[in-house]
Design goal:
- Keywords: Membrane, Signal, Transmembrane, Transmembrane helix.
- Its main location: membrane.
- The protein is α+β, with helices and mostly antiparallel strands.
- Helix content is 53%, strand content 16%.
- The strands form two sheets. Strands 1, 3, 6, 8 and 9 form a five-stranded antiparallel β-sheet that branches.
- β8 and β9 (160-161) form a beta hairpin.
- α1 (2-15) packs antiparallel against α2 and α6 (271-297) packs antiparallel against α7.
- The longest helix has 35 residues, at 343-377.
- The two termini are 43 Å apart.
- The relative contact order is 0.11.
Length: 436
Amino acid sequence: MASRFLLFSLFTSLLLSFSLAEIHFSEIRSDDRQIIPFDEFGFTHFGQLELNVTNIHLANTNPDLDRSKIGFFLCTRDSWLHVINQLEDGEITCALQSDLIKPVFTFKELIKDQTSLSKTLTHNDADQYTLVFANCLTSLKVSMDVKSAMYNLDKGSKARDYLSAGKTMLPRVYYLLSLIYFGLAGVWIYVLYKKRLTVYRIHFFMLAVVILKTMNLLCEAEDKSYIKRTGYAHGWDVLFYIFSFLKGITLFTLIVLIGTGWSFLKPYLQGKEKKVLMIVIPLQVVANIAQVVIDETGPYGQDWITWKQVFLLVDVVCCCAVLFPIVWSIKNLREAARTDGKAAVNLMKLTLFRQYYIVVICYIYFTRVVVYALETITSYKYLWTSVVAGELATLAFYVFTGYKFKPEAHNPYFVVDDEEEEAAAEALKLEDEFEL
């Protein structure tokens, strides 16, 4: 039962991952896993799979070995659930025996001393499939080099599209988003020029974050565009990872700096706030390394699950860490309101930072839940909508941050009269009851 659950979990984790299929090279060395998932792909009615397996070596050279229990097949998520039930009920002893899968080939087709197999399979059943290798012989170690290419043919021109059916829209989506962020950067430059007398250093930092996000989206658009046409990224994936790395670090640093009130409440960082940055930045480095490993190795790697767990853990820790400075700022503002005689000013600042705290929580956690839900329940043809949902949430977060913390020539914090001061003082008396 435990092994069946492990097979199901491994297969499901692949289906919920966001890796994109392309021409892929994989090296398997002395691997005795029963199930090795490779690429996931959304086929149209004009799909094709090209699979080339070379340097095949089995640790057991017994000529009586049942090689029909070793091979490749295609399977959907729903079919895999039924295959698991068949295995548990004893109807079959190997996934390759199920009538619910689409077999590609088994090693039974290997002629004596032959070490390679290749096949081109035309796929007319439109759905989301995963290429899977099954080894149903206990403790048999297998070594091989696998080259796989899955693509859809255009109905008219017969041109190849190496992006999954649900993600073929992504190049245009990313190009459009990069233009939106480019426009956003232009608007922010205009705001900084118009309000240049009240611009703080953090406003230039905000501009840097928007520019890096623009470059990240542009490189991702080029990356997916080349993959769509040729199956290869042609180096754009390297630029994408670089800008993704820089964007991730600067975004989390910006949230920490705003949360501490740097340049708004005080022009310096305290010791504990510096420690948060010293924790967040290295963790972001680790998270980006993990993401690169996850994207480049694919689920066939034996350490893929480990790296995926590392990425999720580091991501959660970073998200929690950036909330602490905002909590500290809210606490400091509440305490200052009782001593400095500027109740109205502190109440407005307190309201602002509390709003930002709520927005950061919604952006970090709620957005992730929505995107995950869309990836899970959306039809394979519309998986690109989860990308749009996540990017629109990010755009809304950027706009909110810029609007709330924009440079102001006439800061409303300092334009208050006696009545507003008294009303604010009364309101602040109730703040002791507020707990984050």
